[in-house]
Amino acid sequence: MTTFTRRAALASMGAALATPALMKHAHAAEQTLRVHHFLPPQAPMGKFFETWAAELVEASNGALDVQVFPAMQLGGKPGQLADQARQGVCDIAWTLPAYTAGRYLLAETIGLPFMVTNAEKTSVAFHTIMDEFGTEEYKGLKTLAFHTHDGGKLHTTKAPILSAADLEGTKMRAPNQGTGDLLAALGSEPVFFPVSEMVVGLTNGVIDGCCLPFEVVPAYKLQELTKYSSEAAPGARGIYANPFAIVMNEKTYEGMSDDLRGVIDANSGIELSQRIGKDFDAAEAFGRSVVEKQGNEIHQIPAEEIARWAEAAQPIHDEWVVKLNDAGYDGQAVLNRINELLDAG
Fold it and tell me: How far does the signal peptide extend, from start to end residue (predicted)?
């Protein structure tokens, strides 16, 4: 079977073909890498992975053939992505630790309420604490980047959220356990399901709103499903940010030639985390413009109200310190270090 025929067969099974830039070098490839993620290809991270894959091909002079499979095209569920990379279902995966709550405790820490400024700065802080405290957390995997999105907003269908009183009696899609605990403390009923299932929840009225950054809005046309967005006032930290990790099968990485490992190393690490964070900040601005163009209302939650919410979140942080301690970390030292990095000029 020719290379073209094999690719055609993959396409017929619903797999994504490599970009033209990748196919140009396919005949010379020494190593094929499959990248798997859960978002649609038109989402900002979907576009990023196509660009990054092409960069790996170019940097390797075509010795790498990098194929990107968005929207779980290799099968499984988003919470299985890290294991898929570990087991060789794919070679590289983009994972969300919140989808396997309690398994990657250190990585989840950055997802606690009010642990985010902007995406770029928070991504650098996240990668730094993983380097300093979490080198053993992703055993069996080569970690390539750790990053976050910008601070999440509250997008609702019936009324804006300006205080805890506005949350009472609502059902809100929570992005992770810590944010869900905060919503519950403020009087809302948190509902948990992946972002890919959120459209159905909003359409059917199962939820009254969701916690998300603006950058996700265009990919799922959430501006058409919600009418109001509420964000922390300028100067206050964002309500939350989900942490993400790009991980690689360790055996695949170790089995590559020195030159190809060098290509991976040169295109990963804290610089990649910072780059992705910066991209997320740009995508956040675009997503906001889409919401504004739709005519939806964007409200700011007053700083004094956010301060009350942060006080309500303190028990959540305290409980997390105990969890980290039980897992063998110095929990308070971890939180102190994150706050130090986020507060640094």
Answer: 1-28
